[in-house]
TrEMBL record, chain A:
UniProt-listed InterPro entries: UCP031503_TM, YibE_F
Membrane spanning residue stretches: 30-63, 75-97, 128-152, 181-202, 222-243
Origin organism lineage: Bacteria, Bacillati, Bacillota, Bacilli, Lactobacillales
Keywords for this protein: Membrane, Transmembrane, Transmembrane helix
PANTHER family reported for this sequence: MEMBRANE PROTEIN, MEMBRANE PROTEIN-RELATED
Transmembrane in keyword set: yes
Protein's name in the database: Integral membrane protein
């Protein structure tokens, strides 16, 4: 049996034991996301525009992450819209930025791994870099959005006469906690992924200027930084959208 | 009105600091010892169409450039140089007039010319860091800065451990980075919740969840003889790739497990405070309920982070005639294993956090 199969079975069993039916559904949402990602990679390889594929795969990934784990329709819809808007804004910032910073494709440090390949494969690596940034952040953005939305919804239920100012105040409090934790998830996830790279850089006795300019270090950092900016944006956006619901309710009552 | 004035002052300061960073990084040639040059003129050749054995069509263009040296003893002098870029741009780039690059000066038959070594990217990196700090401050004020500080501190500890590893050439890097993971954990939790009983409970539940997940992962890999896993496919590996991979997994897993555990523990402590008569069984149940709803999204977060790391490499494998199975094993399987072990950790921390807080 292959290792991945065994680990997948262990995960499925544990998730069902801990989460019951909901756990099993969550397991299938992870599985479905894996399939979406795999299909996206194949579509990009076939030659379909990476950014187009990312937009469609991204919508599907956000939808499974948000709708398959939660059944509160009010909060999930707000979280979904906030996530999509944030990713749209992120995309508009990344496209020109990545072009200026020229961080596409492979770096000199990777030359050993790619020397067997002819790199002229006719697919634009700049778009692939943009896809990677968007796809890797997507989950964290969606998770932050759903956490803020359900937290605020809980508060609104306990205190139905909440004013807009109070809501924004709570939004900031909840948002801050979630921001701190999501930053940690993102940074640890990405530090972990870059461990081997950091060791390599340290072995080269790199100077400070290397960190500020090298393609690989700058591109990895830009990915983390853009993700964090998107997290802040989505928290603000979700709070604002939840606030609009209160405003609408006030208008109806008048 | 007083608040408004302060706000305007803050915005002005933020914008001014941004402009200052931009201006300084545009004129910091003297910081660097390596020769830096600016592209003065560009002449592009006609694009040539190339085709490889897999019928991938691409375009290559040659550029004839002149560079003005910006620092060092050749400052102000102009030298020629060449560059080639392709449509796909896997490891090349098109240069435009005005861009700054790190170069090497070379001599050939009494003619000095320039070879390009690295593009100057410091302005972009620093501007983005500035944007993140400014946004965090505007949205979350000093509390937000604390979150950034915790990340920054962790980053410094992380770099220190890397230095220790390289300096002493440590064999058991897995041990070293597991220890550093414990330090990250203790520090981040202390900054977020302060050092108290809640800190101890959160810390122990994360410790139990993470170690259990790693033990299960290692046993499962050993039982199946690592079938289908190629540790040697790990990017940038300079030491035992298996240990590097395991260290990367522990660190990557920690953030998400921390997220799940703090959610559960803080909810249960809040419940205990509002209702001191609540039974242990009830508390455990509430903990499980919180855990159930965050489990799926968190595992998805990690799947996306780990999987997308290999995307560019996977596309390259596919385009050069490799099969689905081969591409998966050599580019994506490591990320998938990391995501699976992390998923197991996230799942296990739910009962351990619920039981310990109750």
């Amino acid at each position: 049996m292959s290792s991945i199969l065994l680990l997948t079975i262990i995960l499925a069993v544990l998730m069902t034991l801990v989460g019951g039916k909901k756990g099993l559904i969550s397991f299938f949402s992870v599985l479905l996301n894996f399939v979406i990602l795999f299909v996206a990679v194949i579509l990009i390889s076939v030659g379909i525009s990476p950014i187009g594929v990312t937009i469609f795969a991204g919508l599907a990934l956000v939808a499974t992450t948000i709708y398959m784990g939660n059944d509160e329709e009010k909060t999930t819809n707000v979280a979904f819209i906030a996530t999509v808007i944030s990713i749209g804004v992120l995309l508009l910032m990344i496209i020109p930025f990545d072009k200026f910073a020229a961080i596409q494709g492979f770096s000199p440090e990777q030359s050993e791994e790619i020397e067997a390949f002819n790199l002229l494969i006719g697919i634009n690596f700049e778009s692939i870099t943009i896809s990677v940034t968007i796809l890797s952040t997507l989950g964290a953005i969606a998770e932050a959005a759903i956490a803020v939305a359900s937290g605020l919804d809980e508060l609104m239920e306990q205190n139905p006469n909440m004013t807009l100012a109070q809501l924004y105040e709570s939004g900031r409090n909840i948002g801050f906690q979630i921001m701190g934790m999501t930053f940690n998830t993102l940074f640890f996830g990405m530090f972990g992924g870059d461990l081997a790279l950091f060791i390599l850089i340290a072995k080269m006795h790199a100077k400070f200027g290397y960190y500020l300019n090298s393609k690989i270090f700058v591109s990895e950092s830009i990915e983390v930084l853009f993700s964090s900016i998107a997290i802040i944006f989505v928290i603000v956006m979700t709070t604002y959208l939840m606030g609009r619901r209160i405003k609408n309710k006030e208008l109806i009552q008048k | 009105m007083k608040i408004n004035k302060r706000f305007i002052l803050e915005i002005t300061l933020i914008i001014l600091s941004g402009l200052a960073i931009f201006f300084i990084t545009q004129h910091n040639e003297r910081w660097y010892q390596q020769p830096l040059a600016q592209v003065m003129t560009v002449k592009n050749s006609q694009p040539e169409t190339t085709e490889d054995e897999f019928k991938n069509k691409d375009q290559q263009t040659h550029q004839k450039l002149t560079f003005k040296m910006l620092n060092g003893k050749h400052r102000g002098q102009v030298y020629p140089g060449t560059n080639t870029f392709s449509y796909s741009g896997g490891n090349d780039q098109q240069f435009f007039k005005g861009q700054k690059v790190f170069v090497n000066l070379e001599k050939n038959q009494n003619k000095t010319y320039v070879t390009i070594s690295n593009y100057k990217r410091d302005t972009y990196l620093l501007m983005l860091i500035w944007a993140l700090i400014a946004m965090t401050y505007l949205v979350a004020r000093f509390k937000g800065m604390l979150a950034l500080l915790s990340v920054g501190l962790n980053f410094i500890i992380f770099l220190l451990c890397v230095q220790i590893d390289v300096h002493y050439n440590i064999d058991h890097i897995f041990g070293l980075f597991s220890m550093s993971a414990l330090v990250f954990l203790a520090l981040s939790l202390a900054l977020v919740i302060g050092i108290n009983k809640q800190w101890l409970v959160t810390f122990s539940s994360i410790f139990i969840g993470t170690s259990a997940a790693m033990i299960i992962g290692i046993i499962a890999l050993a039982l199946t003889n690592n079938q289908g896993i190629h540790y040697e496919a790990l990017d940038f590996a300079t030491q035992s790739p298996k240990q590097l991979f395991m260290s990367a997994t522990v660190i990557g897993l920690l953030g998400a497990v921390m997220d799940a555990a703090t959610d559960i523990v803080s909810t249960l402590f809040e419940l205990k405070r509002t209702d001191s008569n609540i039974s242990r069984k009830q508390l455990f149940k509430s903990g499980q309920a919180v855990g159930k709803s965050i489990m799926g999204p968190l595992i998805n977060v990690l799947l996306l982070i780990f999987f997308t790391e290999a995307l560019a490499m996977a596309v390259l494998f596919f385009r050069t005639g490799n099969t689905l199975n081969y591409t998966f094993e050599w580019t994506m399987s490591l990320g998938v294993v990391q995501a699976l072990i992390s998923g197991i950790g996230i799942t296990l921390v739910i009962p351990s956090a619920s039981a310990l807080s109750a």
